[in-house]
Amino acid sequence: SGGGTGFSFSRLRETNSRVKTTNGVSSGPISFLKVFNAATDAVKQGGTRRGANMAILNVDHPQIVEFITAKSDTSVLTNFNLSVGITGTFMKALKDNGTYDLVSPHTNKIVDTVKAEDIFQLIVEMAHRNGEPGIVFLDVINRYNPTPQIGLIESTNPCGEQPLLPNEACNLGSINVHNFYKDGGIDWEHLKETVFDAVEFLDCVIDQSRFPLKEIEDMARKNRKIGLGLMGFADLLFEMNVPYNSDHAFEIAQDLMEFIDYYAKVKSVMLAEKKGAFPNFAGSIYDTGKVLRKRKNLDWDRLLRDIQRKGIRNATVTTLAPTGTISMICNTSSGIEPQFSLVYVKNVMDGDKLLYVNPVFEKRMKELGLYSHELMEKISETGSLKDISEIPEEVKRVFITSHDISPEWHIKMQAAFQEYTDNAVSKTINFPRQASMDDIRNSFLLAHKLGCKGVTVYRDGSRENQVLSTGKKKEQPDTESLKASDNSSGPGEIKDNRITPRTRPEIMTGLTRKIETGCGHLYVTINSDESGAFELFTQMGKVGGCASAQLEAVARLASLCLRTNVKVESLIHQLKGIRCPSPMWYKGSVISSCADGIARALESYLKLNKEGCLNGYSSSNPESDTLSNPGNPAKKSVAGICPDCGATLEYSEGCKKCQFCGWSKC
Q1: Residues in Cβ contact with 421 at an 8 Å cutoff, skipping those fewer than 6 apart
Q2: Residue 43 reports pLDDT greater than 80
Q3: Considering 159, 519, 561, 658, which one is annotated as catalytic?
């Protein structure tokens, strides 16, 4: 089981808006967002799965700028994905290079008028920097709202595939379409039978479910929304010898999703004949004849007549959700995403490597007589065939991975599936590391043009903790950047592309802070020289053994960083928010681990320094950090390391997930 919650903060009045009942002022939506984030932390500490939330703020809210930049520091709001709710008014102003109004949600009064271009550019800049915020097109979503008489849709679930009304709940399932490959094509009759079974199953789930709140139960049973989707699409294309980034694949996607959506509705009509239509049918788009579908292969007019005559059991029937864990169980590709890598490597005991090779690719390589363990290891360094000379061009053309595909084709494929999906599509638009902000901008505009309901982008390496060294090729550090980033009077010296730490003076001054952690009293001492923070020592009460050794290791490495002019803010960014099983409330906030406690001590050091209490190093611009790693291997951009099994994570379907153990951030 899994899931998450979605919140629209757009109805909360802006910061410092007057509250008449108390003659006070409001704290604004960002403060409530932080409260919800902390509450998720508290809830998840008792279990084993992270909490996941989606926060949406409409683009016309007075605090939209603060919302867009809320995750400039990626160590905060870690339990939320952020998306900006884009309106048709905003998109028109953007097209016309005009302005639009920011409106107070409490008074409905205009509080400011801003250029649409300025706001859009800020969204693009932040998405380019760290992948957030995403955007959701609220007008498009509500154009397909099946029950407009009940209300407007204002938010989605964490991965964006399920726009819902207040108190509605997800009820999703996915068909492994790879299993329906037959004789070079798709076994349509078998797929139809499976769609019928899946729709009936999901409809029964609603009746058998126990809901946490009466309001949720009422909405779930009055609208009876289900979301049947698919997985294994990329592997199906491999079997059919069709490249993902091709017109043929686009047509297959449309045909496949139209078929699933059409026959899901046919079955829902059959269920309505037996059990009755969903209670909110009157006034819905089905009742009024506004079912918006382009007719391609199937008789939609006849289906609409049947719906108006007999009713339909479910307000929605199709959704394309992430399938991280279940696609692993089925040993197939996730959702509609292309394969992230053709060969994965997992380090196991005694330094051995376990290779996981995509089954369809392995089969093809063996048929061609090209399969070898050495070649698979070579492919695993990047996961792609792009630069592998031993692979025939025809194989390279078909077996392409996520980063071989241009963003335009990612969006085209999302749009192809969205055209025949009631709810929405979970999809990540992957960009290479060198992608420009214009690339991000053009993708957002293309997604709107093609009718997508929302879009999430991810540029390789755009988050500091998402670069993992896996290859063998050596990279040289950018010594000019190192020199340019130095703004202190005593830099570590650069010799032969190596940084020499500053020499320790005989006498130093410093401060010591005591912090309560879940493991006991932590004492952190930070010493300075004339150039700033120089070294860090830790002492944990009477603790010994592994905990003491790990604390000493952190302190030594932190000291080495400080002596080589890594900024204090960068250390804080790396250490803050690291979690252990024993968090501790301390002076109104949670100390989530000893490493987090060290980060708090470093923050105290900076604060005292800025107040003039110290003569040490300070910087107010952590975003300008230039961190270098001389002699790093070639880097493969992934989404970090799995906290459960230690394997590499990938970023797809709007979420981080592990291909080995099934862990997912969402």
Answers
A1: 229, 257, 261, 318, 319, 320
A2: no
A3: 159
